[in-house]
Design brief:
Elements: H1 2-29, H2 34-56, E1 58-63, E2 77-80, H3 86-94, E3 99-104, H4 113-118, E4 123-125, H5 131-146, E5 150-153, H6 171-179, E6 183-188, E7 204-210, H7 221-239, H8 245-250
Parallel strand pairs: 1-7, 2-5, 2-6, 3-4, 3-5
Antiparallel strand pairs: 6-7
Helix pairs in contact: 1-2, 2-3, 5-6, 6-7
Amino acid sequence: MALIRSLVHMLVMIVTVIPYTLCILLVRLLGGSPAARYRVARAWLALSVDSARWIVGIRTRVTGMEHLPQDPGQGVVLLVKHQSAYETFLMPAIMPRPLAYVFKKELLHIPFFGWSIGSLDMIHIDRKEGMRAFHKMVEQGKRLLAQGTWVIMFPEGTRIARGQAGEYKSGPTRLAIMAGVPVVPIAVTSARCWPRKALVKRPGVVDVSIGRPIPTQGRKHEELMAEVEAWIEGEMRRLDPEAYPAAAAAQ
């Protein structure tokens, strides 16, 4: 049954992404603003999250929303634990401000989905360009943050299996420090229901814990990222102790 429900959800996402993408492209062709295009994309992402709840039984429990800045002019860099595609869909659906992902340019080649994100005001980089790609990210990130868009990044760079931690790279904290905005760490237990690279999704609750903003003034990027990593990984162990038996045994 879990396999059938997972396949139905996948089919819903594949079928619905087509009209939403065409709508985004039409809005762009007619001169619609980036904000208008984002609203269409956000609607599809919210539909993907809602359909996961209706069809598969994946529910979301969010804590810490009160920690997010209330000032619409305050930019932040969201640093999110990355276990599956679920948080990619979820974050724009629950956040009160428009988000701009930093993503590898290869995603632009995915039919419909890639065409959609390529039509949005986000940051796509070529990792092969090294420092040039980093400078492009900083330039575009500063522009977006200045206009009230929040930049969202996965500091581990790729999806990490449940109960494990990847290498937290300092690029996101470099950007935040250079832009003069705080970072907000976010823990997500999505692999409990939607494992990475797995076809079958399982019903259950995905916990999302939003930490307090961490100021960046006067900070060094390495030690700032170490603080972010410590908070996220500590929170992951609190939210999903079954995935970290060694940590649970030590308590």
